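Quick sanity check, Zinc-dependent alcohol dehydrogenase:
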Amino acid sequence: MRAVTWQGKRTMSVETVPDPVLHSPDDAIIEVTSTAICGSDLHLYEVLGPFMDPGDIVGHEPMGIVVEAGRDTRLAVGDRVVVPFTISCGRCWMCSRGLFSQCETTQVTEHGSGAALFGYSRLYGSVPGGQAEFLRVPHADFGPIRVGTELPDHRYLFLSDILPTAWQGVRYAGVGAGDTLAVLGLGPVGQFAARIGVHRGARVFGIDPVPERREMAARHGVEVFDPGSDTIAAIREVCGGRGPDAVVDAVGMEAHGSPLGGAAHAAVGLLPDALGRRLMETGGVDRLAALHAAIDLVRRGGTVSLSGVYGGQASPMPMLTLFDKQIQLRMGQCNVKRWIDDLLPLVEDPADPLGIDDLVTHRVPLGAAPQAYAMFQQKSDGCIKVVLDPRKEHHVQP
């Protein structure tokens, strides 16, 4: 089969690799019909290289058709399924409490990490990912989400990650009707977080430097701002001088405007892999501009909810401000299946209340993945969300 593989920093390559096979009675194999590039994939592309091996198959936002099903899966050949990015058993102590991203059956204890993830480095189990023609799905007796056949892939695809991630971020923010919410970063997760805030009745402010992202969010009732010097003051002013009730940071560790973190990321990328891994595990520093802005912006007694990924173990935090402002911090890898019952009716609603039809800016063949990664990282050509189609022609026309 053909698959997108990591070959080095900023180097993805579409290669021919062995087809997956069943390893366990609760495994399934799906033919991937759509698979997306996630903002988290850019961390592998840029920052987390020390935990990657050349040839690793990437991707964690897939859906497709079951072509093989182990006897314990309760799936049938021909089922159309979305595959959550977290690999969870559904039965352990953590899963029984809805903490599927902390599954004790698949935890990567060697690195002190939570549940294994598809296509996401040694830190999360080096499980082959979903940017491929076929995917082996472990624990398929629990993970895959059966969906209908009437709607196009993109209406369901984002149940794999970014839609429940945004939903969890807004739920953790604790906002509803009459509240105020700011969303930092209007990439795919930020787009959905802002729209979910509007759907829940909050007044939502979206902050992003990219005009196309601001324009997209504005189409869905979000009040948008460029992250200029006056933005925090302007939002604070319309929130009674206090700031919003909650802020969702949908940017994470690669925020712009963080020279210390940026230099640390660059340094890690120049080290031999073993030294780079050690530095990331014990002394990594994130780019914290977005998080510090969230802490500054939120009102006293408010909540900062982190949907963007952070990976540093030595990132400096403004503890005096956090304590003095009585800020609640909530965060964590998304517990995808905890939110599916809430989201599936919204995804299938003909009115499309979360604007899912207005997110994908590029759908390209699997063979175009290397160019799509570069375009997504550089935010060129109005790129906000890329979906790869493994069933289209393999090669990009010159």
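Posting the structure with no commentary besides this: The domain at 2-161+335-389 is CATH 3.90.180.10 (Quinone Oxidoreductase; Chain A, domain 1).
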